[in-house]
Amino acid sequence: MIDGRVAILGVGTMGEAILHGLRSGSTPIPRSAVRGTVRSAPRAAELSKKLKVAIGTDNVAAVASASVVIVSLKPLNVVRVLGEVAAAGALEHGPLVISIAAGVRTEDIEAVVGPKCPVVRAMPNTPCAIGKGTIVLTGGRRARKKHLTIAHSIFRPLGETLELEERHFDTVTGLSGSGPAFGYLMVESLADGGVMMGLPRDVAIRLAARTLLGAAEMVLATGAHPAALKDEVTTPAGCTIAGYPRPRGRQDPEHARAGGGAGGELRRGTRPEQVGAASRRGATGARARGTMKRTRDGAMHGPASHLGGFSFGRLRGDHSGRAETVRNPIPRSRISGRAKERFQHVALPIPRS
To answer: Could you tell me what percent of the chain has a pLDDT over 70?
Structure first.
């Protein structure tokens, strides 16, 4: 429960999301109890009209009467702005200071706000704008349980909140803070694949986004390891395993149908006619030997390589007629007994020189 006014220094994308959360939570605070700041007067007037709260450019005036100060500034400005506010005496009443700036430690903030202000650090992410975010909290040296409780109440309307030690915050910033961008890249990539195969763009984007949404919900709802859920989709020699990325070289149809694998160890420079009785050693140290033969379709056929961890490879030829092994990272633990039976023989096309 927030007792008193709240000041938000820097009403940008995340600051605006926090402001909406304050107004829409289980115990919304009145508009008159919220003040925000931005750098320019025209922007302040625009936001005041849009958000129906007092937005100005004077940080000192906003903080002077606040019981909670939320710092939503760019990291490089946090210490400077708080130092200016502290130098003006606006923090003498000891408000709770909550910073969402990435990379700015609580001890750096404590050094400028003075001994009266408890400090809480938060790392939200952009899905907070629609109430689907994840916010990680940690308290500084002077923060107590009641201060973290206030922080939880502020951020809970924006998504799920949890607490971690500050030593994890750089990792949290990369994983949770920056993570949505990689999710968007995955949606875009999946949708592009759908468009390439003829789907309308809007349908492809919707299918891709809902697919990732459903997969994420499955992880959270079931508590199962992502690898176990992935294996439920990945049937032996099926279309899913065929789409797994390969470290190098393009994926050919025969290789996809075989699900990966190669017979024999071939070093760079080995010619296709020299692959008979080639061998390779898997991660477990076992050796699999076999004979590779060329068939009418131009493919090399032979026993699959050893199924030990990270031991799959594929034979790739270049225009000079030379061949090399490209390892495929498919751990042994992820290959079922039925899959092993299907990997007994593989077909690997080698371009003729």
So the answer is: 69
